[in-house]
Every structure is written in structure tokens, then in C-alpha cells.
Amino acid sequence: MYNPKPIDTSSVELSSELTELTEKLAENVHDIWAQGRIKEGWTYGKERNDALKQTPCLVPYDELPESEKEYDRNTAVSTVKMILAMGFRIEKP
Predict the structure, then answer these.
(1) Residue 33's closest CA among 64, 7, 5?
(2) Three-class SS of residue 33?
(3) Do residues 81 and 13 make contact, with C-beta atoms less than 8 angstroms apart?
């Protein structure tokens, strides 16, 4: 049985600069996801329909509902926090 064991990042705090970075990462995560769906033949539809390969999420990131943005933000925040928890630094050049 699979027992997920993600790195504990509960003590990692993000600066305002890194929080801004995570929002850009979240937007990029969405764009990569959307690009993949389009390549698979998905199109925009008002409701998700797997049989027709339609989804309402094939819109620019800023047009997504907050609930969908949160999914992408969680991915970005978790990744940045994991990088920091492992002892790496993220510095703006």
C-alpha cells in the first residue's frame, strides 16, 4: 500500500517576494496544463465533459475562478517551500 511521505514544510515561511513568485509559478503551471490539454484535443466548454474533451478551465489564469487558482497555487507554494526546506536558496539576480 502506498503511503505518501512529503517533505515537512510546515515551518517554512515565504517572504512577500517569494509569494509573488509562487503566483507567477501558479500561472505557469496552469499554462502548461492548458497547453497539454489543447495538444490532447481538449477545447473550452461551459461545463466539463470528458467524452467531448471540453473544460471551462481552458481560459487565461486571471479568468479562472479562485477555486481553480488555488489548486495551481498549492502546487507552486508546495514546490517553493520544499526547495527551501531542503536547504536551497531562491535569489533574484
Answers:
(1) 64
(2) helix
(3) no
Distance CA 13, CA 6 (A): 17
Tell me if the pTM is above 0.90: no
Q: What is the mean pLDDT of each run of 10 residues along the chain (93 residues)?
A: 94 94 96 98 97 98 95 95 95 87
Residues 14, 80 contacting (CB under 8 angstroms): yes
d(CA 8, CA 10): 6
- Cβ neighbors of 81 (< 8 A, separation 6 or more) are 9, 12, 14
Buried b (16+ CB within 10 A) or exposed e, 8-19: ebeebebeeebe
